[in-house]
């Protein structure tokens, strides 16, 4: 599993790789936290998450949008996610900790997840997600 930030003129663009869709969703959440807070959170608390969509790209978009919402509204910094993904549903547990300005003050504000240029594909033994976070 990995994520890397790619060059982008204005926003934060990432390529995320993982062996399974569940791992890919977890890495995508960690990449989002890295942008927002400069680092992912630590385990300690949990939040349930469940989203539905009609296609794989819309599903990962809905998942990341919900992670962003939970983080912003509940002040929850995600460390990892245990996610089960089907064709139309992603369901699981977000692990993390409450936001602390001292621990999580090194990031950039994320306004939303961009559907533009979002792609999800399978290559050999990996899933690959390209996503832009609107900063």
Can you offer a commentary on this structure?
- The protein has one domain: Archease, Possible Chaperone, Chain: A, domain 1 (3-Layer(bab) Sandwich), CATH 3.55.10.
- Helix content is 27%, strand content 45%.
- The protein has two helices and seven strands; from the N terminus they run ββαβαββββ.
- Strands 1-2-7-6 form a four-stranded antiparallel beta sheet, covered by helices on one side. It has a three-stranded antiparallel beta sheet with strand order 3-5-4.
- α1 (21-37) crosses α2 (56-74).
- The radius of gyration is 14 Å and the shape is globular.
Question: How would you briefly describe this protein structure?
Answer:
The chain is α+β, with helices and mostly antiparallel strands.
Strand order of the largest sheet: 1-2-7-6
Would you state the CATH class? Alpha Beta
Tell me about the largest β-sheet: 4 strands, antiparallel
Shape from CA axes?
globular
CATH superfamily placement: Archease domain
Low-pLDDT residue intervals, each spanning 5 or more residues: none
Helix/strand order, N-terminal first: EEHEHEEEE
Number of strands: 7
What is the straight-line distance between the termini? 24 Å
Fraction of helical residues: 25-40%
State Rg: 14 Å
In percent terms, what proportion of residues is strand? over 45%
Structural class: alpha+beta
Number of domains: 1
CATH topology: Archease, Possible Chaperone, Chain: A, domain 1
* Average predicted local confidence, pLDDT: 92
């Amino acid at each position: 599993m990995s994520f890397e930030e790619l060059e982008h003129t204005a926003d934060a663009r990432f390529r995320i790789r993982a062996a399974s869709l569940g791992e890919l969703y977890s890495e995508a959440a960690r990449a989002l936290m890295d942008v927002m807070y400069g680092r992912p959170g630590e385990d300690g608390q949990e939040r349930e998450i469940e989203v539905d969509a009609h296609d794989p790209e819309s599903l990962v978009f809905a998942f990341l949008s919900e992670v962003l919402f939970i983080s912003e509204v509940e002040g929850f910094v995600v460390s990892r996610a245990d996610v089960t993904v089907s064709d139309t549903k992603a369901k699981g547990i977000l692990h993390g900790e409450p936001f602390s300005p001292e621990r999580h003050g090194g990031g950039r504000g994320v306004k939303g997840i961009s559907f533009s240029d979002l792609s999800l594909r399978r290559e050999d033994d990996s899933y690959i997600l390209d996503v832009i976070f609107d900063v």
